[in-house]
Every structure is written in C-alpha cells, then in structure tokens.
Write a structure and sequence with these properties.
alpha+beta, 34% helix, six-stranded antiparallel sheet, 5 helices, single chain, two-stranded antiparallel sheet, globular
C-alpha cells in the first residue's frame, strides 16, 4: 500500500509496558488496532535523532519519510549520501507476531538505556518507546512549555 493510499494514522497515548528477557514487548492494543485498521504490514524501528528514545514508524510512514529525505539530498554529493546511509543504517524492519509482540534487539535497548520498564508514547504518526524513568519528569519545564507554545501559536 502506498503512502497516498494509506489511511492517515495518528497515535495518541502514554502507555507503560515491560520487555521480557529476550527483548520482546507487546505493542499496546490501542496502537495495534490503529495499525491493523490502516492495513500496516510492518514497522521500522530506529533511534530518535534528537532524544534518547526509539521510534516505531508504520511502514507507509517510513516510506514517506525516506521519500522526503531522499528528495532533499543529492545522491551524487558524498556528505549527503553519508547522511542518508546513516539514517537507514540505524533502522530495522520489524513485524508483530500473532500475539502483537515485537522483538527489539539488545543493541537498540542499550542505545536508549531500556532495561525492562518502558513507556509507549503516541506522537502523531509514529510511536516512541522510552525508558519509563525518562518520562517520569517533564521533558520541558511547565514555564518553558507554556512560553514555547505561546510563541508558536501567536
């Protein structure tokens, strides 16, 4: 299914979960239902560029991201080609098993400091996976958040 044919998908939620000893984790039911109703067949996992968390992209969203990134890069420019390589190097295709679990390799769990307790955070058309304790306190102070929102919305 192409991105243009896909239903617009949006995730919302902050859900706690645990990984097992092998790194398997259940994708929260509310997110699984959204993925299934949109006809998503696979997910792509990569570490976030700016934050210490993992990002799950539905397949159609990943394909669109790659299309946009590629359109902004010149494949004949060495530095830009290295940026593209690094972006895809840090990505891994995942599929949910029949129970709705995904397997996250130890390499990814270690990259972001996840031991067992995690939080799934729905962020627009992606799902972030955080070490639970990293979201126990605000990412931005309430005062800074209010000021930033005000600037953005004026």
């Amino acid at each position: 299914m192409s991105y243009n044919e896909a239903k617009m998908i949006q995730f919302l939620g902050n859900i706690e979960a645990k990984t097992d000893a092998k790194g398997r984790i259940f994708v929260p039911a509310v997110f699984r239902k959204s993925l299934q109703s949109a006809g998503e067949e696979f997910l792509v996992l990569r570490k976030d560029i700016f934050q210490d968390c993992l990002v799950l992209y539905p397949g159609s969203v990943w394909e669109k991201e790659i299309e946009v990134l590629r359109s902004r890069l010149n494949k004949w420019n060495k530095d830009q080609q290295q940026v593209f390589r690094q972006f895809v190097l840090d990505a891994e295709r995942l599929e949910m098993d029949a129970s709705g679990r995904i397997l996250i390799s130890k390499r990814y769990l270690q990259m972001v400091g996840i031991d067992s307790d995690v939080r799934f955070l729905g962020v627009d058309d992606t799902i972030e996976i955080w070490a639970k304790e990293k979201l126990d306190k605000p990412l931005v102070s309430p005062e800074d958040f209010a000021a930033q929102i005000q600037r953005l919305m004026e």
